[in-house]
Structure formats: structure tokens, C-alpha cells
């Protein structure tokens, strides 16, 4: 047999099934393109030169792994649509005398043509569009960097190797299905269909329970750290619950429609509902997949966009002043007025040298300890706390004790406290008790819950709730905590002097000032007269802005790229769902046309069917997003984003834009379905 016979036959098969193969090849090309872009950017010297470049590259490297895993799963899924449509053709080849080996050769060349073409086209387009992506990233990071056109050969080879393996696995899987099927089964595969499924109440109820439990977790969690632990569990529960509910619930939904006689026995609805019942098991799984992909897109875009547009708020929340200095002291004696004044004079001298005018200056003493508060009792000894309670994070706090004199000076107050009284200010969790007892010893009465405390910036990055306790005197009121050590023999109570202020300096000079303060106090720490400093560090808003921009900008950029991939996937699933169902319904509508059904009535029937099920994934994704809002908001707190209004508006806008895109896809795919079942384009 001519060696070119099989390639020609494979190419002919692809052309004849262009309605199926074209979207598949385009999607494969898109996957290769996106993988190359993300991989190339993760190794790009230009990206490395950006602010927070190392952070961005780490995110992009993670993103390339996500694309690789998703491509494997998704391309296997979409190839099943092709295999289902081609079985009749392969069965015909088999009956006409072709053996399974001959069919395998055809499949091999189809894989080479479609897969190889996708890899080559994706690589070329990836090289071209990678620079556009790089430019977009530079703009997102608000940078002005020159770059040149270059090719990442390593990324190109990685993309070619990865997708060659994926296409090889798809080819072997298709061979497995063909080998296990008889010629007659292949020939009549289109007409086999599914048995009308029964409404499985058990699966439906179980799916609803799992989904309800996931919703409950999402809306009841208060601690950001606990939210981080439970988020991925809730995601898995939502995925499982969604699939179970769609598969079982969609069948039940169709049965209900059938029992509504006035609705069911309507020319507009009769054919559509009957068709949905016929294939509802597969239909339900497809709709669930669309719903999950839509939810992933909405969650990623809304969360990463909120971080990006709220990065200045987050930055100021974490670093309330331009310069944020902390000196950890050896003991309470080291925190005397003389040492504090010496450190203050040293900091002022450095500022004077750099011409920095100190504004909004706050300096205060602070003692911090972590522990669990339950029923108004603070327990700092971990061994005395129930392990389950400790791991739940429900009552874990980071406590900061501040002397009253420092509080009044900073807040310009004239507050007084009687013996045993305290003032309390909490971050991320309310404290409703009117007393506070430390290790079953010292007992305080809460005089007042404060509405504000300007020293709370350091608590913004804590993943557990924080509590500021204003006491009369640190030495007297913390006698039960002073000298207490942990299991490693380290002091549990950390004593610090905080020194924060704004400057009028440019970012570059601000960074130099910060470095000088840091180095100077390190020298003091190592000197003989170390002023009782155990450890010190200084942070500037200008220097950390790069890290924030790198983190948030990188996440936003990665969110956009992954969202594009997931949108491609959702659109392709929708398209194949419509096309495959169109071919299955073609004979039914042909019969209906012969008995008098007009194309206008066909259009109405199609709209009835599509509108009945098409927007279910979008509505369900919106419900998922609403219930996910509280837990995502807690996770955003870990990035110091406390602007709930920004996140809410970003979520609403993201859903609105996605709904518009979804509607456009609905219109396009419904026209494709109509073209197939009507036998001609709509006039």
C-alpha cells in the first residue's frame, strides 16, 4: 500500500470533520502558546529586573505547572468528543476490510498532523505573543524597561516535550478504545446512546449536603489562618457536590418538566425536554464542568484584581509609616527611659544627616505574647491547651501589651486606669468579654474597648487575630508572664521598642535612610554598650513597595493568563456539547420538519432547550461565588487587604463581564446547533 495513503486519509478525515477538529486544534495551539508564554516569562531576564521580579518568576513557574496538569486533563476530556464522533467512521473502515492496525496508522497520522501542527503553531505564536505578554506585565508593574525580542529555547523544548507526551498518551488511549470495540459497535455507536437515567435521590441529596457543608465552612470561618487550611477542603467539596447535584438534579429537573403537562406538551418544549432526558447523565457532567471552570475564573480574577488595585491600601495597612523600626530588648530593665532616649537620639541623628523631617512620629514600648483566650482566660503554655482546640485556631490571639503613658502620648489622650483595669483594641476578631485573666493568675477588668489604635500596623500581617492591651505598667501588670519560657527555653514574652515615622524623602533616599538605621543599630547591638538591644530591624515602605507590587502584580498577571486558559476550556466544552448534541438531534429534527415543523419553530425549540440548561452553570457559579466571598475575604486579609468594598465591587464587575462573554458564547454555539439540526443556516 502506498506510504502516503495513511497521511492522506488522516488529512482527509480532519478536513471532513473540520467542525470538530478546528476548535480542538485551535485549543491545543492555545494551550501550547500559553504554556510557552508563562514558562518563558518565568525565565526572562526582563522579568527578573522588575520590582519584585523573583516573586513574579516564582508565581509564573507555579503557573506553568498548573497549565501542564490542566492541559493533560482537559485535552483528554475534549478528545473524547472527537473519538465519539469518529467511531462510526472507523467502524466503516473496519467493515470495508481495514484491520485495527490500519486504523491505528490513520490515528497515528491524525495525531501527528493535529498534535504536531498545534505544537509548531503554538510555539511560533508563543514566541510572537510572549513579548506582548512581557509588555503587559511591565505595564501592570508600572515599570519602564527596555526589552528585545528573544526566544527561550528551553521553554520551547519544554513545551514541545510536554505536549508530545500528552498527544502520545491521547493516541494510546484512543487505540485502547478502538481495540476494545467490535466493528458493529463502532458502526452503530452514534445510535447507541444512553439509557434514560433515573432520578437518583440519594446522589442528589448527598450532593446538596456536601455543597451545603462547603458553604457553611466558607461563611462561618473567621480566622484567616483557619480559612487557609479549610479553603482547599471547601473547594474539593464544592467540586464534588456540584458534579453530584448537576448529574442527579438535572435528571430530576427534567422529570419535573415532563410532569408539567401544559409545559411539556408544547411544540417548543416537547423535543427539547425529550432530548435532554435522553442524555442527561452526560449533559449533567458537562454542565458541572462548565460551572466549575466559570467559578475558578471568577474567583481568580476577582481576588487577584482586588489585590492589584488595592495594593496601596494593603501596603499602608502593613507599613503605616515610611520608616518602621523595631528593637527587641533583652529585659524590662533595658526598656528604661535612658536607653529609650539614647535610641531615639541616634535615630534622630541619622534622619538629620539625610535631611529627613520626621512627621507623624510614633514611638512606644510593647510586650508581645501569643496564646489562646477562652472564656476570658489567656493561656500561654501550649502544653496546657487541648491540641484540638489549638489546631482549630478559633481562640488563638497575638497579644501586645502597651503601657498607658505611651498610649496617651501617641493618641494624645488623657486616659486613666485604676489598678487591675485595661483598655483593649482588637484586630480581625472582636473580644466581647469584660475581663481578661492571664494563666489563671492576674485578673484584669476591661474598662473600655477602643475604636482605634495607631500602633496596629504591625498586626496587619499577622495571620491570627491580634489584641492590644493597654496596661498601667508593664513590670507590675505582666509579672505572671515575665520570665516564662517555652519548650525550647526561650522567653515567651517579647519586649520591643517601636519607632515609626513618615519622611519627605524620595523613595531612593528613603531606602538609604532605612538601611543606615538598620546598620547603625546592628553596630550598637554588637557593641559593648548595646543599650540592652537583643535584635533590631528596620523596614521602609519604599523598599517593600517593590515586594508588594511584585507579589500582587504577579498574582494578577498569572490570574489573567490562567483565566484565559479556563475560559478557552469552558468555551470548548460548551461548543462540543452543542455540536455533539446537534449531530445526535439532527435525525429527530429532520423527522419533525417532515411532519410540518418550521425552521422558526425549530429555533424556538432550540432556545427553549438551551436557555433551560445553558445558564444553569452561570447561575450556580454566581451562587458559589457569593458563598465563597467570606472565606476569600479572610484569605485576602493575609495580604493586608482589608478593603471589603473594593473586593465586593471587583467581584460584581468580574461576574458582569463574564456573564456578557457567556451570553456571546451562548449565541454563537446556539447558531452552530441550529445550523446542524435544521440543515441550513438561519435566514
Can you give a write-up of this model?
- It is a single chain.
- It contains 23 helices and 10 strands.
- With 683 residues, the chain is of the alpha+beta class.
- The chain folds into 3 domains: 1-192, no CATH class; 196-319 and 547-683, no CATH class; 320-545, no CATH class.
- The protein has a 7-stranded mixed β-barrel with strand order 2-3-6-7-5-8-4.
- β6 and β7 (442-449) form a beta hairpin.
- The chain starts with a helix and ends in a 5-residue tail after the last helix.
- 43% of the residues are buried.
- The model has no long low-confidence stretch (mean pLDDT 79).
Described by strand count, sense and barrel closure, the largest sheet is: 7 strands, mixed, barrel
| CA gyration radius, whole angstroms | 32 Å
Taken together, the total number of domains comes to 3
Distance between the termini: 47 Å
| Percent of residues in beta strands | 5-15%
Number of helices: 23
Provide the low-confidence segments as ranges. none
> What is the helix content?
55-70%
Categorize the overall geometry.
elongated
Strand order of the largest sheet: 2-3-6-7-5-8-4
Number of strands: 10
| Average predicted local confidence, pLDDT | 79
Q: Which structural class is indicated by helix and strand composition?
A: alpha+beta
Amino acid at each position: 500500500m502506498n506510504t502516503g495513503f495513511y497521511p492522506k486519509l488522516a488529512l482527509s478525515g480532519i478536513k471532513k470533520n473540520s467542525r470538530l477538529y478546528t476548535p480542538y486544534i485551535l485549543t491545543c495551539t492555545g494551550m501550547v502558546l500559553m504554556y510557552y508564554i508563562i514558562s518563558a516569562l518565568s525565565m526572562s531576564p526582563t522579568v527578573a529586573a522588575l520590582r519584585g521580579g523573583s516573586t513574579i518568576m516564582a508565581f509564573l513557574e507555579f503557573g506553568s505547572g498548573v497549565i501542564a496538569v490542566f492541559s493533560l486533563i482537559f485535552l483528554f476530556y475534549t478528545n473524547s468528543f472527537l473519538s465519539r464522533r469518529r467511531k462510526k467512521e472507523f467502524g466503516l473502515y473496519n467493515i470495508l476490510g481495514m484491520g485495527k492496525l490500519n486504523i491505528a496508522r490513520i490515528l497515528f497520522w491524525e495525531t501527528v498532523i493535529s498534535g504536531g501542527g498545534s505544537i509548531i503553531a503554538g510555539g511560533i505564536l508563543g514566541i510572537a505573543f510572549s513579548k506582548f505578554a512581557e509588555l503587559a506585565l511591565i505595564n501592570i508593574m508600572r515599570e519602564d524597561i527596555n526589552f528585545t525580542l528573544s526566544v527561550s529555547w528551553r521553554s520551547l523544548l519544554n513545551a514541545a516535550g510536554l505536549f508530545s507526551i500528552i498527544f502520545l498518551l491521547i493516541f494510546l488511549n484512543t487505540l485502547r478504545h478502538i481495540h476494545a470495540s467490535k466493528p458493529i459497535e463502532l458502526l452503530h455507536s452514534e445510535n447507541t446512546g444512553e439509557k434514560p437515567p433515573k432520578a437518583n435521590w440519594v446522589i442528589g441529596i448527598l450532593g446538596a449536603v456536601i455543597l451545603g457543608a462547603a458553604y457553611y465552612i466558607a461563611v462561618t470561618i473567621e480566622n484567616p489562618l483557619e480559612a487557609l487550611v479549610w479553603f482547599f477542603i471547601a473547594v474539593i467539596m464544592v467540586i464534588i457536590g456540584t458534579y453530584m447535584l448537576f448529574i442527579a438534579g438535572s435528571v430530576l429537573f427534567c422529570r419535573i418538566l415532563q410532569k408539567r403537562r401544559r409545559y411539556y406538551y408544547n411544540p417548543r418544549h416537547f423535543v427539547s425536554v425529550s432530548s435532554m432526558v435522553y442524555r442527561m447523565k452526560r449533559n449533567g457532567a458537562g454542565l458541572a464542568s462548565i460551572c466549575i471552570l466559570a467559578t475558578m475564573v471568577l474567583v481568580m480574577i476577582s481576588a487577584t484584581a482586588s489585590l492589584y488595585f488595592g495594593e496601596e491600601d494593603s501596603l499602608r495597612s502593613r507599613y503605616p509609616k515610611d520608616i518602621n523600626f523595631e528593637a527587641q530588648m533583652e529585659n524590662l530593665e533595658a526598656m528604661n527611659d535612658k536607653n529609650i532616649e539614647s535610641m531615639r537620639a541616634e535615630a534622630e541623628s541619622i534622619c538629620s544627616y539625610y535631611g529627613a523631617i520626621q512627621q507623624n512620629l510614633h514611638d512606644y514600648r510593647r510586650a508581645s505574647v501569643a496564646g489562646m483566650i477562652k472564656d476570658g482566660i489567656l493561656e500561654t503554655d501550649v502544653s496546657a491547651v487541648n491540641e484540638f482546640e489549638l489546631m482549630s485556631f478559633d481562640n488563638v490571639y497575638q497579644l501586645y501589651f502597651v503601657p498607658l503613658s505611651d498610649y496617651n502620648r501617641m493618641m494624645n489622650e488623657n486616659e486613666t486606669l485604676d489598678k487591675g483595669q485595661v483598655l483593649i483594641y482588637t484586630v480581625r476578631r472582636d473580644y466581647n468579654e469584660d475581663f481578661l485573666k492571664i494563666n489563671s493568675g492576674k485578673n484584669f477588668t476591661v474598662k473600655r474597648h477602643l475604636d482605634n489604635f495607631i500602633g496596629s500596623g504591625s498586626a496587619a500581617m499577622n495571620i491570627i487575630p491580634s489584641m492590644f492591651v493597654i496596661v498601667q505598667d508593664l513590670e507590675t501588670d505582666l509579672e505572671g508572664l515575665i520570665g516564662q519560657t517555652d519548650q525550647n527555653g526561650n522567653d515567651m514574652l517579647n519586649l520591643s521598642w517601636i519607632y515609626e515615622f513618615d519622611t519627605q524623602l524620595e523613595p531612593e533616599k528613603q531606602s538609604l535612610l532605612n538601611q543606615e538605621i538598620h546598620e547603625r543599630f546592628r553596630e550598637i547591638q554588637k557593641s559593648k554598650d548595646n543599650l540592652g538591644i537583643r535584635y533590631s530591624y528596620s523596614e521602609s515602605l519604599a523598599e517593600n513597595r517593590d515586594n508588594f507590587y511584585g507579589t500582587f502584580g504577579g498574582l494578577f498577571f498569572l490570574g489573567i493568563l490562567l483565566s484565559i486558559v479556563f475560559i478557552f476550556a469552558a468555551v470548548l466544552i460548551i461548543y462540543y456539547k452543542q455540536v455533539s448534541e446537534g449531530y445526535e438531534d439532527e435525525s429527530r429534527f429532520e423527522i419533525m420538519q417532515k411532519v410540518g415543523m418550521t425552521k422558526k419553530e425549530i429555533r424556538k425549540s432550540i432556545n427553549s432547550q438551551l436557555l433551560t440548561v445553558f445558564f444553569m452553570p452561570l447561575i450556580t457559579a454566581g451562587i458559589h461565588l457569593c458563598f465563597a466571598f467570606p472565606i476569600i475575604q479572610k484569605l485576602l486579609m493575609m495580604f493586608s487587604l482589608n478593603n471589603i468594598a473594593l473586593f465586593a465591587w471587583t467581584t460584581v464587575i468580574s461576574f458582569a463581564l463574564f456573564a456578557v462573554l457567556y451570553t456571546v458564547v451562548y449565541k454563537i454555539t446556539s447558531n452552530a446547533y441550529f445550523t446542524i439540526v435544521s440543515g441550513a443556516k438561519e435566514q
